[in-house]
Amino acid sequence: MESGLVGKRAFVFPGQGSQYVGMAKDIYENSSSAKELVQKAEDTIKFNISKIMFDGPVEELKQTDTTQPALFLHSALLLNEIKNHQPDVVAGHSLGELTALYSAEALDFNDAVKLIRKRGEAMLFAGEKEQGTMAAIIGMDGETIETICSQASEDGVVQCANFNSPGQIVISGSSVGVKKAMSLAKENSARLVKELVVSGAFHSPLMKTAEEIFRDTLEKVNINNAKIPVYANVTAGAVTNKNEIKDLLIKQLTSPVKWQQTIENMIDDGVTEFVEIGAGKVLQGLIKRINPNVKIIGIDKYIDLQKLV
After folding, report:
1. Of the residues 4, 86, 178, 308, which has the maximum number of CB atoms within 10 A of its CB?
2. Sequence spans of domains, the chain
3. Region at 85 (left for phi over 0; alpha for psi -120 to 50; beta for the rest)
4. Quick check: 126 pLDDT over 90?
5. What is the average per-residue pLDDT within 48-61?
6. 9 phi and psi, to 5 degrees?
């Protein structure tokens, strides 16, 4: 990517919620190297993930230990097809941050697949051990929601989990804490308050068990310095140092995803074009709401690859 007047290009990678039955099937069918990469992933995690990605059932695809490697693999297959197109910087939403690290060569493919599968298993386990929930709050600013969560915390654990875009924030925690925060948000005239169907209270203190399991797994994986800056969810800032990357990946499980601030910081640092690589259009929608003036491209299907030519 040329620097200067044209600005920088960022690749961004989706997280949970973007998966769908049939994901990556057309890429697999159109590319022999995609078939090889799928085989490599399945040999590594000893699991026939492509069958669930291509054919479902949707209930199984929604299980976090399946969703996470499925989303990673979809994005990895697309990256494999566009090797000639390099970004200046990368970022990913929650699970997508690990895909971003893979694209920045901080993780190799086998390590990334293993790590992501283990992350999903750890989060599923933590969700069963410390049952909680999440809710989206639309039409309310972050400061107000943080105050509401602080008040509701007297009843049960609850905190902001995702600062997605202006007026779209997700909260997470115990059922009691989240429901109390939901009712306070309604009383304070939030436009929409909706509980989400999730298998755990992600990005909250209830993921502490997952954090501990994931830390142990990370110790067994080789993490390199990133070749290009990766914007971290926890800080919304750029990172390349392998030790810092490792530390932030662990913290990410119990900390809020600062997606809005991440995108704003990337734009401040000269990014003028965002390319979402992977399933769905969630990040494209969020980025449009954060800043409608930047160029946004989505690559999900095999046919979308021509958008980068």
Report:
1. 178
2. 4-128+206-308, 132-199
3. beta
4. yes
5. 97
6. -105, 135
What's the length of the chain? Answer: 309
Tokens of 80: 């494999």
CA-based nearest residue to 253, from 210, 220, 216: 210
pLDDT over 70 at 83, yes or no? yes
CATH architecture under which domain 132-199 falls: 2-Layer Sandwich (3.30)
d(CA 202, CA 52): 23
* Strand pairing category for 271-277 and 295-299: parallel
Q: Is 231 within 8 Å of 89 (Cβ atoms)?
A: yes
Q: Are 16 and 68 in contact (CB under 8 A)?
A: yes
Coil, strand, or helix at residue 12?
A: strand
* pLDDT at site 5: 52
Element (H, E) at 41: helix 32-45
Average of pLDDT values for 225-238?
A: 98
Alpha-carbon gap, residue 264 to 268, rounded angstroms: 6
For residue 197, name the pLDDT band (cuts at 50, 70, 90): confident
Q: Which residues contact 92 (CB under 8 A, 6 or more apart)?
A: 12, 13, 14, 15, 98, 99, 100, 101, 233
Cα separation, 113 vs 118, in Å, equals: 9
Fold of the CATH domain 4-128+206-308: Malonyl-Coenzyme A Acyl Carrier Protein; domain 2 (3.40.366)
In this model, does residue 4 exceed pLDDT 70? no
DSSP notation for 54-110:
HH--HHHHTSHHHHHHHHHHHHHHHHHHTTT---SEEEESTTHHHHHHHHTTSS-HH
